[in-house]
Amino acid sequence: MATATRAGVTGKPTNPATAATAAAATPGARKPAFSDRVVAWIRAHRRFTSWAGTVLVVGALLFIWTLSTKQRAEEIASRNLAGARFAFDNQNLPLAASELAKVIEDYSGTNAAQEGRLLLANVRLLQGQPQQAVAVLRDYAAGAGRAFRGQAYSLLGNAYENMGRTREAGDAYEQGSAAAPLDFLKAQLLADAGRAWTSAADTAKAVAAYRRIVSEFPKEAAASEARVRLAELTKGAGSATQ
To answer: In terms of C-beta density within 10 A (0-12 exposed, 13-18 middle, 19 or more buried), how is residue 18 classed?
Structure first.
């Protein structure tokens, strides 16, 4: 009986590996889906993926725990700050100072602690203790949060001025002006700096501060005073707008 043959069929058994290679090399051959490749990789690197997954889970838990702890600390510090503020509003300055010191020490890094530090400095000034106010603010002001930095330098300048250290007061006020978020605060702190420089007999720096107000913040209330002070310091020789 004659054996029938088809064109292109050799009659030899086909090697599966050779067939797979040929199929892969054939243009338009279907590639495994991306998800299939990912699954295959994970299976091939089971130990690594297990370790990486554990690290991610632990990291996520630590992040959640830290966030939760910080939130709880902020809430407690805010409650304690409210109690200290109540004492302050009722003119019980010794109690307010004591409570504020606790907030600062126990809840360092919270917004409530930063607010508490500013309020404590204010309490010290009201108690006639500018040196203690300087101690509260001197190392803090430069690293204070942006929302608190301008006020910190303003209080520091006030404390220095009360101590008669007017040159240091002028520096503090100018740094406060640079950090202040609003133009009217920037202008007012420059006016405070001008006053401190005048008291320190540094006419050049006083004139420079007042001229900055006039040129940079002409619409602010401090500009009117700055023009008057410039006229006094320059004896009318220099224009307020120079």
So the answer is: exposed
Residue holding tokens 């067939």? 19
Alpha helices of the chain — where are they, by DSSP H? 16-25, 34-44, 46-89, 93-106, 111-126, 130-137, 146-162, 166-179, 183-199, 203-216, 222-234
How far is the C-alpha of 189 from the C-alpha of 223, rounded, in Å?
A: 12
74: Cα within 13 Å, side-chain hemisphere: 9
Which residue's structure tokens are 């740094």?
175
pTM: predicted TM-score of the whole model, two decimal places: 0.69
Closest CA to 188 of 164, 157, 148: 157
- Measured CA to CA, the distance from residue 16 to residue 25 in angstroms comes to 14
Please name the residues in contact with 84: beta carbons below 8 A apart, sequence gap of 6 or more: 95, 96, 99, 100, 103, 116, 119
How confident is the chain (242 residues) per 10-residue block, as mean pLDDT? 43 45 48 64 64 59 50 84 93 95 91 95 97 96 94 97 97 97 96 97 97 97 95 70 43
Which pLDDT score, from 0 to 100, does residue 95 have? 96
How many whole angstroms separate alpha carbon 200 and alpha carbon 186? 21
Position 184 scores a pLDDT of 95
